[in-house]
């Protein structure tokens, strides 16, 4: 895996981009928890060149001040694809990235050969509201993200620092690490809030009918962030898609069951190529 910065729109954006693997390109858009080169991406890169940018406001990617709404995000990603010279490639998005992926596929359906949405935000059902990510405690968040609350990842989320920066000693190694973590978390959550708060509904339902490439919606059976009933809402609007519920997983299904999710993605591409 290689990581590099890509300049987009004459320097308006500097995009932190992860890229790895071999084969035809595939675009992956990450979720609220940010982007790491996980076993899911590593396995996916066995048969694809995976291109995974960090959304402005996450990591080293800059330019979030130029993104006021979901439509700005769409044109940002289209400009990034133009810069990279990419078209007619599979598009995979998770969580917030799933919302962005759906909007991209609706805006330019001919640009993407396949679409996979993994536990995406973007729709709203009054009878089944999504969790407010910006008000839950860390232990609650961990239980919503992961099916196994005792897993290493769940414990890491549940025990992440909740202190204020004024309470941290910046002259110690632990203090520097804590401050870095708190700053990064505040930056990423502020970015996510633009598109998810107060509710994650920016009118996607009015545009989803334009998503007509072969599609797959994947949901973790125990997702505590977005109830799995939303999967049915997505496929109702997307004319050429199906839904797959994955057991023993929650919102972070791609981390909890990476092999199964990769098989589902590869299966869609193989069946409809």
Describe this structure in words.
With 273 residues, the chain is α/β, with parallel strands linked by helices. It has one domain (2-131, 198-271): Alpha/Beta hydrolase fold, catalytic domain (Rossmann fold, 3-Layer(aba) Sandwich). The protein has 9 helices and 8 strands. It has an 8-stranded mixed beta sheet, sandwiched between helices. Strand 5, helix 3 and strand 6 (112-118) form a beta-alpha-beta unit. The model has no long low-confidence stretch (mean pLDDT 92).
CATH architectural arrangement = 3-Layer(aba) Sandwich
Order of helices and strands: EEEHEHEHEHHHEHEHH
Mean pLDDT: 92
Number of helices: 9
- Beta-strand proportion: 15-25%
The tally of beta strands, per DSSP, is: 8
Structural class: alpha/beta
User: Sheet with the most strands?
Assistant: 8 strands, mixed
CATH domain class name: Alpha Beta
Radius of gyration: 18 Å
> In which range does the helix fraction lie?
25-40%
From the N-terminal CA to the C-terminal CA, the straight-line distance is 26 Å
């Amino acid at each position: 895996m290689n990581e590099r910065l890509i300049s987009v729109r004459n320097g308006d954006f500097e995009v932190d981009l992860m890229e790895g693997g071999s084969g035809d390109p595939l675009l992956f858009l990450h979720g609220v928890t940010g982007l790491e080169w996980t076993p899911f991406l590593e396995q996916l890169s066995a048969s694809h060149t995976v291109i995974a940018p960090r959304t402005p406001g996450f990591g080293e990617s800059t330019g979030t001040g130029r993104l006021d709404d979901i439509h700005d995000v769409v044109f940002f990603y289209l400009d990034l694809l133009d810069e990279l010279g990419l078209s007619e490639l599979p598009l995979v998005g998770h969580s917030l990235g799933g919302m962005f992926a759906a909007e991209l596929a609706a805006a330019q359906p001919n640009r993407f050969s396949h679409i996979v949405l993994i536990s995406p935000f973007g729709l709203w059902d009054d009878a089944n509201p999504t969790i407010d990510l910006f008000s839950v405690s860390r232990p609650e968040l961990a239980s919503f993200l992961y099916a196994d609350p005792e897993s290493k990842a769940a414990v890491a989320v549940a025990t992440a620092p909740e202190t204020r920066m004024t309470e941290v000693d910046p002259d110690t190694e632990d203090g520097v690490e804590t401050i870095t973590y708190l700053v990064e978390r505040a930056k990423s959550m502020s970015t996510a809030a633009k598109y998810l708060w107060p509710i994650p509904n920016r009118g996607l339902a009015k545009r989803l009918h334009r998503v007509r490439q072969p599609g797959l919606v994947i949901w973790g059976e125990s997702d505590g962030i977005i109830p799995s009933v939303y999967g049915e809402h997505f496929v109702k609007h997307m004319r050429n898609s199906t839904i797959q519920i994955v057991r023993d997983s929650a919102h972070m299904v791609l981390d909890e069951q990476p092999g199964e999710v990769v098989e589902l993605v590869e299966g869609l591409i193989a069946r409809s190529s």
